[in-house]
Amino acid sequence: NAGVTQTPKFQVLKTGQSMTLQCAQDMNHEYMSWYRQDPGMGLRLIHYSVGAGITDQGEVPNGYNVSRSTTEDFPLRLLSAAPSQTSVYFCASSYGGLGKDTQYFGPGTRLTVL
Amino acid sequence: GQQLNQSPQSMFIQEGEDVSMNCTSSSIFNTWLWYKQDPGEGPVLLIALYKAGELTSNGRLTAQFGITRKDSFLNISASIPSDVGIYFCAGPHTGTASKLTFGTGTRLQVTL
Question: Rounded distance, CA B15 to CA A47, Å?
Answer without folding.
Answer: 40
